[in-house]
Amino acid sequence: MIILKSSVLCVKVPRKVGEAIRKKLNGMGVLNRGFEIGKNDVYLYFPITRDLSGYELEELKKICKVEIVKQKLERCKSRPRSFLDVLKRELNEEELEFIRRSFDIIGDIAIIEVPKEVSHLKHKIGEAILQVHKNIRTVLAKVGKVDSEFRLRKLEHIAGEKKTETIHREHGCVFVLDVSKVYFSPRLATEHWRVASQVKDGETVVDMFTGIGPFAILIAKRVDATIYAIDKNPYAIKYLEENIKRNKLRGKVIPILGDAKQIIKEKMPGKADRVIMNLPEKAYNFIEDACLAVKPEGGIIHYYQFASDPDPEGKVVEILEGKVLQAGRKIVSILNVRKVRPYAPHEWQIVVDALIH
Ligand SMILES: C[S@@+](CC[C@H](N)C(=O)[O-])C[C@H]1O[C@@H](n2cnc3c(N)ncnc32)[C@H](O)[C@@H]1O
């Protein structure tokens, strides 16, 4: 069979950063879906619909060196472009209304919310995802609410291989994890990168709620820092230990199983240049402890909290300022405040980076 190829404008990047670049290009809305992604042993060629602006190029260059080139690529065969296209052949309009358009992908596992109105169609939904996304082997459905302590949720197998352990790649790091036993959200990838890229060689960081270590591992991958990585969930620490072994790290990650409050009090008052507090439901209960961990000469706190409209950013800054003062420290400057992601209608996960003294 002769395969016809056409010369297309492409972004050429090393294979190892392919997923991060694909997500960025997708977000910019420039991926040319009429062509297959080109690949050889070293590079990927992402087809794009137009030249990138200077700003867009700068965004990509934060991840790796990129080149804009012309490359001969195969045209996509005619096939369903999304799992909804597959479902459209079988479901009626009313049923389709209830199907969630997006789902999380962790490694080769897809996790989707299936509203009760279409729960009888869950296996069909799972099969449609498998049919379109060849990189996915397992589809799980979210069941019930998130447990508040370890931030876990029950998951039900709806299609593909019956498993919950997978290997996820983020910013060139490898994370092995069991999605049913530990918290992980691929939606925090940008945030992990944003914080990690601020850390300098020689810093001491306390990651109070580390999970499987996406902040800690990425920091240690990039710079020669020491990161105390605390979590109360024994499975999180088990996978963190495994992930430390799997990634070639420049810095040192020290996994600690236990309650961040107690660990800081006993082992690390005044040690940290930087504290990461990613427990948005309850972090306000731990601000005093974060202040205790920060060096007497000062340091930075990355503080996360859920807050609702109007002015969610203002609300979170106010809470942080009040609690830092109560802890006998003060905020010298708010370095950054931003919405990390929507959490519920009119509710946001907010991050505040604060320099405290
Ligand atoms: C929202 S997850 C964040 C995980 C990770 N930082 C990330 O970005 O993926 C919060 C983590 O805090 C842990 N946790 C909850 N309460 C804790 C406590 N008192 N001390 C230490 N860890 C705790 C949970 O087990 C969970 O892994």
Can you tell me about this structure?
- This protein is globular.
- It has helices at residues 18-28, 54-61, 83-88, 93-98, 122-132, 189-196, 214-222, 234-246, 260-267, 287-293, 312-326; strands at 5-14, 38-39, 43-47, 67-74, 104-106, 109-112, 138-143, 154-160, 165-170, 173-178, 204-207, 226-231, 252-257, 274-277, 299-308, 331-344, 347-356.
- It has 3 domains: 5-74, Alpha-Beta Plaits; 83-163, Met-10+ protein-like domains (GMP Synthetase, Chain A, domain 3, 2-Layer Sandwich), CATH 3.30.300; 187-356, Rossmann fold (3-Layer(aba) Sandwich), CATH 3.40.50.
- Helix 6 (189-196) packs across helix 7 and helix 9 runs parallel beside helix 10 (287-293).
- The protein has 357 residues and is α/β, with parallel strands linked by helices.
- The mean pLDDT is 94.
- The longest helix has 15 residues, at 312-326.
- 29% of the residues lie in helices and 31% in strands.
- The structure holds S-adenosylmethionine.
- S-adenosylmethionine is lined by residues 149-151, 183-185, 188, 209-211, 214-215, 230-233, 236, 259-260, 278-279.
Going across the major beta sheet, what is the strand order? 13-12-11-14-15-17-16
- The separation of the N and C termini measures 69 Å
CATH domain topology of the largest domain: Rossmann fold
Work out the number of β strands. 17
What's the CATH architecture of the largest domain?
A: 3-Layer(aba) Sandwich
Mean pLDDT: 94
- Shape, principal axes of CA atoms: globular
Beta content comes to 25-35%
- What is the alpha-carbon Rg in Å? 22 Å
- Small molecules bound in the structure, each named once: S-adenosylmethionine
Spans where pLDDT lies below 50 across 5 or more residues: none
Number of helical segments with 4 or more residues: 11
**Can you say what the CATH homologous superfamily of the largest domain is?**
Vaccinia Virus protein VP39
The tally of structural domains comes to 3
CATH top level of the largest domain?
A: Alpha Beta
Structural class label:
alpha/beta
Please bin the fraction of helical residues.
25-40%
Major sheet description: 7 strands, mixed
